[in-house]
Design goal:
Length: about 100
């Protein structure tokens, strides 16, 4: 995939209740459907799609994962990014992803 497509959205941070307590942002459903329809062929195992994410002054390479139960992509938020940008659960944040 040569050209990159940028998507911007605002979404709240939430924490997984299970073991490990990972932090995520769920991409808006409509946006997830658009990405999945156009870029599903680039997904790797378990619905993983490589992206570059940007929140405030932080930019990092990561992946979004398609969650079939929630029917949307999830963006995991590393502890390093949460600490650097002072991100808290339930906070609505501006996010840009480059696919």
């Amino acid at each position: 995939m040569n050209s990159k497509i940028q998507y911007k959205f605002i979404a709240p941070i939430w924490q997984y209740a299970g073991q490990g307590g990972w932090y995520f942002v769920s991409l808006p459903h409509e946006l997830s459907m658009e990405i999945r329809e156009n870029l599903k062929l680039f997904e790797e195992g378990w619905g993983r799609l490589k992206v570059t994410a940007k929140i405030e002054n932080s930019e990092w390479k990561t992946s979004i994962w398609f969650d079939t139960k929630m029917n949307t992509y999830l963006l995991p938020l590393k502890a390093e990014i949460r600490k650097k940008e002072k991100l808290e659960v339930n906070a609505n944040i501006n996010i840009a992803i480059l696919v």
